[in-house]
Amino acid sequence: MASSASELGKDATFATALASYFPQAGFVAHISSRVEGDQFLALVSRGPSDTFSSDSGPGLTIEVTDCLQGVFRRQLGLGALDELRRGAGMAEFAWPTFFRLLASALRGEEGCGVTAENIHIATGRSCSSTGQGCSRGLRLEFRFQLQAAALVGHLQLDAAAALPEEVLASAETTAFLRELRRFVLGSLKAAAAAEASSSVGSPPRPGRGLAMGSPARRPSAAAAVPEAAAGVSDTIGLFDTSATVGSGGSLTRTPSNPSAPAAAPKKRPGGSLVDPNARKARRGGGNPFQLSSG
Fold it and tell me: 218-235: per-residue pLDDT in tens?
């Protein structure tokens, strides 16, 4: 029972660490080739590994293509990822540390990286050194940079879809595929640059601050009409007070003599309950110039 509980704990740590460094939607990475000038595209996504029933559960799917040879794929579950971890000399590394290094290698960050190489996989005794009777595959070499050393791990990917040999022998087909690869790589590079420029330091869209009701984006009254704010300040200054314009356009008056008590507001004379429009006669008599309505 203790061993089963330990295995369940390891599986939970594995799944949590995997989800922390690899999004389920996946990401696209550029992988260099051992052949100078060539480049591979890799699509790395997180999902259940259903290749083998003994290695089912959370895992990674790595798909790589150079737009020339074909598409190579490998599903990695707990067993395959543990084999990769041990093969790189990181058997004692915790899953979060290993997945951080693996993600950095696929993204080409923190001094880590991946190199791809086309290989021939022997499927029988008829496989020759020239590739006759062999199936094509891809060999990935991971470089994990640590503080004191660099570790290397290898992973083999099988061909999910490959072009026939007679098609690859055509010069026209090869030229077309190379142009297609150049177009795909250029499009992804342009899309990544556009996304980076729009997410960092992009100016707000016109009217967006008003529509969202964000007070930080709304211009203040002083900024919108500086001449009017200056005129109001000058007018208030004539009455021996100072005024400041707040961020929301409100005016705050401060008496020049803070110790002087503020004058109490005068009360307006009350109106008649019978005729609200009629004004109450002032003390000291009525208006001598007003004619009586008789």
Answer: 344 444 444 444 444 444
